[in-house]
């Protein structure tokens, strides 16, 4: 109705958000389509260089991402911190969005931001998104990639958990089976186990030291790294590198992603920081 009365679809607020940015961030596909049909610029950037596709990816709405891509949105677009839409999608762990974006730009699978050097795998692993982690590994994500602190995704998993954190232990196993090194040290000489001990991530420690998995998995212990065949030789990786099925409704796609609706991307301080614009200078 407002568009019919001459409302400016290119209007921006003080942070550079257009109506299309807002609609994309909130997953409003019908509104996004109406704005695009009225001439809204799909590649318009806000003050942090984020396009509507970045916000749609962060909100976990693959249907909006698909619409933006089909109308000129760039899957390779980066904001001022070097973040791609794929990195944003991995932050919230929306499997369907990652499955849409990842194959469209394979170069983005290992592309870090330019602030913390966080890769999509760091982001997904930090937040314990196992199906997304497995999908990224299938797409060629590097489990040994290092961020600005010299930390691998395995370090991120270890530091992000607490006590009986089951989901991150399963992520750690997937990373190890794909080639992550439990003995790798960061720039301060700390291994993943060192970080796990600093936050009392006891489930991770039990897995790293004894191959123990949380009781709920009903699986026999498997050694994390040293006692396995070298993944680079093709052994011990086949099961991990299968594309994981989409998680059941509500498990991931409707959980963490829903909490991110309405947020953009911004100057995160590391893999454990939500990549948000709101309220930043």
TrEMBL record:
ANK repeats lie at residues 15-47, 48-80, 116-148, 149-187. Residues 210-281 are annotated as: Disordered. It comes from the Eukaryota. InterPro entries: Ankyrin_rpt, Ankyrin_rpt-contain_sf. SMART domains: ANK. Keywords: ANK repeat, Repeat. Pfam families: Ank (PF00023), Ank_2 (PF12796), Ank_4 (PF13637). This is Uncharacterized protein. It comes from Vitrella brassicaformis.
């Amino acid at each position: 109705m407002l568009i019919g009365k001459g409302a400016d679809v290119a209007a921006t607020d003080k942070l550079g958000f257009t109506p299309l940015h807002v609609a994309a961030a909130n997953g409003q596909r019908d509104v996004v389509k109406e704005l695009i049909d009225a001439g809204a610029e799909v590649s318009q950037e806000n003050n942090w260089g984020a396009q509507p596709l970045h916000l749609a990816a962060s909100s976990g709405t693959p249907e909006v991402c698909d619409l933006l891509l089909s109308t000129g949105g760039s899957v390779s677009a980066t904001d001022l911190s070097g973040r791609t839409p794929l990195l944003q999608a991995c932050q919230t762990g929306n499997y369907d969005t990652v499955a849409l974006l990842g194959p469209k730009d394979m170069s983005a699978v290992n592309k870090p931001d330019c602030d913390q050097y966080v890769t999509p795998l760091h982001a997904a692993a930090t937040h314990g998104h196992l199906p997304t982690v497995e999908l990224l590994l299938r797409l060629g994500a590097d489990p040994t990639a290092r961020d600005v602190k010299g930390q691998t995704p395995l370090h991120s998993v270890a530091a992000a958990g607490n006590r009986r954190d089951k989901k991150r232990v399963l992520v750690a196993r997937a990373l190890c089976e794909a080639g992550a090194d439990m003995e790798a040290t960061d720039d301060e000489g700390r291994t993943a186990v060192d970080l796990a001990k600093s936050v009392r991530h006891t489930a991770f420690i039990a897995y790293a030291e004894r191959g123990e998995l949380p009781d709920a998995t009903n699986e026999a212990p498997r050694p994390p790294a040293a006692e396995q065949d070298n993944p680079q030789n093709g052994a011990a990786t086949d099961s991990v590198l299968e594309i994981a099925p989409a998680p059941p409704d509500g498990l991931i796609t409707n959980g963490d992603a829903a909490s991110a609706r309405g947020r953009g991307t911004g100057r995160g301080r590391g893999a454990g920081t939500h990549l948000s614009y709101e309220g930043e200078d």
